[in-house]
Amino acid sequence: MSYRYEFALRERIGANCAAFERRVIEDSERRAATAIALVDDAGEAGYLFIRRALTMRRNPGQYALPGGRAEPGESAEHTARRELAEELGVDLGPETVLGVLDDLPTRAGGVVTPVVLWAGGAVTMALDPDEVHDAWVRPVAELDHPEAPRRVTLDGVEGQVLRMPVGGEWINPPTAAMLYQFREVGLHGRTVRVHDVASPLWTAK
Hints:
Layout (H helix, E strand, L loop, with lengths): L6 H13 L11 E11 L2 E9 L10 E2 L2 E3 L6 H13 L8 E4 L3 E2 L5 E8 L13 E8 L10 E3 L8 E6 L2 E3 L3 H13 L18
Parallel strand pairs: 1-7
Antiparallel strand pairs: 1-2, 1-4, 2-3, 2-8, 5-7, 6-7, 9-10, 10-11
């Protein structure tokens, strides 16, 4: 399936997110947010994806969505937009928020909230080398891979780990869980829950 970067897609994703009754976790002091930032990629819809800096203390070199810790009193929407600007130099206003997906608990004991953003066109990235090793625009259509999601069993992990395709690789939760829920809710208007998806043990570091 192709996803043209056009007003109709923006309206569809916004309507699907608005109709979605998201799951909220209230009792966590360690909150973070990620940005599913939708951009124009030669006329097709893409989203921004990064590899974390190799020098970072936690999860160096991890493939992820742009994002990070919330500041005191900061909403998930503001956190996602701030982190996107800090990490990639992409500054989007509050009007670009299309919706918010489920709060997800992490193995590290925190909660991360995915925020869907519509950039309104192509973007130019300016990477912060302390935060980001590399960054790409990935095609939204890739999320509809016929084998996605894959579910695998890992040693020491209770339950199956859900994986999603990004750039020819199969990535793990929590990022894979966010992209899967975005596909189902945002693109197709289907309600799925991913808070109980298992993550690899290394994501607790």
